[in-house]
Amino acid sequence: MPLRCMATSGIAGCPERGYHVAKLPIMNKPSKTPGICRIDQPSHHTHGFFLRAARQGEIFSGFFSDKAYGGRAAALAAAQEHRGKLLKILGLPVQKSRRLNAEIVRRRGRSGIYGVQRLINRRTKPWRKYLVAAWSPKLGVVRKKQFSIRKFGEEKAKQLAIRARRAGVRSMKESRDAEAGK
Q1: At 48, which helix (H) or strand (E)?
Q2: Around Cβ 139, how many Cβ atoms within 10 Å?
Q3: 164, pLDDT greater than 50
Q4: CB 19 within 8 A of CB 11
Q5: Where do the structural domains in the chain lie, given as residue ranges?
Q6: pTM of full prediction above 0.70
């Protein structure tokens, strides 16, 4: 029995004409078991649940094998129980403001500071070299400021870019309620 189009237009979801409506995954759906993921590696005979929690740079982890706990459901229950014990000891993770998150020291590029990078525009002759400072004053918005190496020199352009980045981070909104528009 051939498939029939359900849409009156004959386009959306019509397999006869080669159109298929794909069900999109729901993004940002909170997990029922945060910090717990399923691992199935038949080649290594590894089946179970992996638990991971991190606080202040320290990682706590554990593996709960199906075989050791007598099945998939029992292994998941053991992982959830262990997660509950960890949360009682460690507490809930602290939500940082966007400004504090921007100030976290990360792996630095050649400029030596996060949010400042050296770029070369090769589309022009002669090539334009400059340093760019980037920050996000509010959610979904990125601001950038460029400093020409030819105009300011390498060191002065770097100093100006670092100063602009720091000023931009200081201007970021502190509270999460302000970001949400409340």
Answers
A1: strand 46-55
A2: 12
A3: yes
A4: yes
A5: 35-90, 98-179
A6: no
